[in-house]
Amino acid sequence: MQEVLKTKEADQSSRQVPECLTTEGALSIREVGKIYDPEGVHVEALAKCSMEITAGEFVAIVGPSGCGKSTLLNIMAGFDNLTEGEIFLDNQPLATVDQPPRPGPDRVVVFQQGALFPWKTVLENVIYGPVVQKGMSVSEAEKRAKEMLMRVGLIGTENSYPGQLSSGMQRRVEITRALINNPKILLLDEPYRAMDTITKGASHQYLLELYDLTRKTIFFITHDLEEALFLADTVHVMTSRPGFIKKTLAVNLPRPRNFSMLISKQFMEMKAELVEAVHQEALKAFIAGEREMA
Amino acid sequence: MARAAKMYGVSFTVKVRRLFSSKGFVRGSLAVFTFFLLWQIGSMGLLPFMHAIPTPIEVVKVFWEFLHLTKYWQSWGNSFLRVAYGFVAAQILGIPLGLGMGWNRNFKDLTYPLFELLRPIPPLAWVPVSILFWPTNETSIAFITFIGAFFTIVLNVLGGVSSIPRELTNAAVSFGASPKQIFWRIVLPATIPSIATGMMVGIGITWNVVIAAEMIAGNTGLGRMTWEAYLASHTAGIIVGMISIGVAGYVSSMAVKAISEWLMPWKKIF
Fold first, then answer.
1. What's the gap in Å between the CA of A119 and the closest CA on chain B?
2. Is the peptide bond before B265 cis (omega within 30 degrees of 0)?
């Protein structure tokens, strides 16, 4: 069995994957802290949370519920401010203490619950960004959207409403809607949380294909350790609240990733390492009786 | 949408066949039939307390006569007009007010307390003051129907705006939408389902209110017609009035439903 896996892996590494050509989307998160309601309840969600993300890196953040993962993502997306530290995107300040939160199409979020506009068709959803930014005319945006939908296997659904699609397809549309803006970073907030295992597997495959195609920096939040290892280049484990990075694990699985890797020895070892790190934090959070915050 | 309809839609004849062969339909029809049978037996004097009520057959006869009277159709017209005035005015004023309250904190702080102060007053309690205030009977009745629908629609719209998922507005902001674009392109369409619910509830209340107002203050309309039949001890006429009011309410509800479906093509999937 081991032999078979090894040859399979070798086989895959010989398959050509475009070398990382991404030059945009490097993030530097420096000692970020966030306190909610400092004068009142005073909840410290993040404390001295730091990490470096290179351009085109696929980063997964794992940690117990309520550890501040989503808080960090919201700060990066510009939905929330930070109370300490700073974040740089390609050496430009993205979020600082003095700067009010500022969302933008260069870092689009794909949400846990999904945020497709239910009253717009798939096509209208996808062209929303370019049209609202007035970067493209409607017909131009539609043409481009159709190309992208074609590439991701969603052609034929463009006139459907999101409610008519499966959850897996909805996420795909949402990622397409994000990518059409040509963002520097994709922020994914547990996008596959509510999915059954089978749909999840298919969605992973799809996301990996897209990643191999575009090599955008991806910041992926999840509870699912296997998911994190299978998708990411680097997995950061966050502590329970106040959250900071407790452990960083480089995932040295070759790309393109394949499902047989899920049962490889290497994968199991990494998973064991992660489980231990996360479990301690989960226990701490459990004992503290903390609930999910964001 | 058209594609979905083709995939899942069933033809009209199949629908009708399914309806007639369904157990639910048979049971329902049985119940309706039994109701009319008991009514007939009861009003023939065979059941207690029902001797004063005309038989269904008598009612049908009187109904037929009514259908030939212009006065009957005028009553319909009058009531419908009053409902329409009150209802439309309630939408025109209530939807923007609800949207404004939900969208702008300051505006809500300013208007909500007064709104909540007036809301518990039942529409019919407005009858005397509106007769005093409005120059004609017609305007006072329309005003009372307006009150009936107004508070409901405002509350529904306000609730709708407040419960828009945060993700939707956040996503729009991410894509670079301005506050104005968010209001018109996100908040407004996201509130349409609540507006539809408000309209649905509102039209029901409007009919309730208009009938009562006509009985108290009107000279015309279906409510007045029913009341006059009572004053004339014309019992079959009372029942014809009741049935007419029911039909009128049903027709209005269907019209409102059709409007809301037209407003929300994304809700109608199959």
1. 5
2. no
Task: Yes or no: say if A39 and A48 are a contact pair by the CB < 8 Å rule.
Answer: no
Q: Compute the nearest-CA separation of B185 from chain A (Å).
A: 10
Whether this model's ipTM surpasses 0.90 comes out as no
Amino acid present at A92: Q
- A91 has a pLDDT exceeding 50: yes
Whether residue B172 is contained in a domain is answered as: yes
Residues B61 and B189 in one domain: yes
Question: Count of domains in chain B?
Answer: 2
Q: What are phi and psi of A267, to 5 degrees?
A: -60, -45
> What is the number of structural domains in chain A?
2
Residue A294 included in any domain: no
Contact residues, chain A to chain B, C-beta under 8 Å? 77-79, 103-105, 107-109, 111, 113-115, 117-120, 128-129, 132-133, 159-164, 181
Q: Confirm or reject contact between B165 and chain A (CB < 8 A).
A: yes
The residue of chain A with its CA nearest to that of B190 is: A119
- A:B CB pairs within 8 Å: 73
Give the closest of B1, B176, B181 to A104, CB-based: B176
**Taking chain A, what is the end-to-end CA distance rounded to the nearest angstrom?**
44
pLDDT at B5 over 80: no
Residue A20 has pLDDT above 80, yes or no: no
Does residue A279 sit in the same domain as residue A195?
yes
Which of B3, B7, B167, B187 is the mutation pick for testing A, counting most A CBs within 10 A? B167
Which DSSP string corresponds to B194-242?
HHHHHHHHHHHHHHHHHHHHHHHH-SSSHHHHHHHHHHTT-HHHHHHHH
Q: Kindly state whether residues A75 and A206 are assigned to the same domain.
A: yes
Which residue's entry shows tokens 């068709």?
A121
Q: Is the Cβ pair B174, A111 closer than 8 Å? A: no
CA distance B39 to B53: 9
pLDDT over threshold 50, residue A194: yes
Does one domain contain both B129 and B235? yes
Maximum CA pair distance of chain B? Answer: 75
The predicted-structure confidence for A139-179, as pLDDT tens digits, reads as follows 888 998 898 888 878 888 889 999 888 888 888 899 899 98
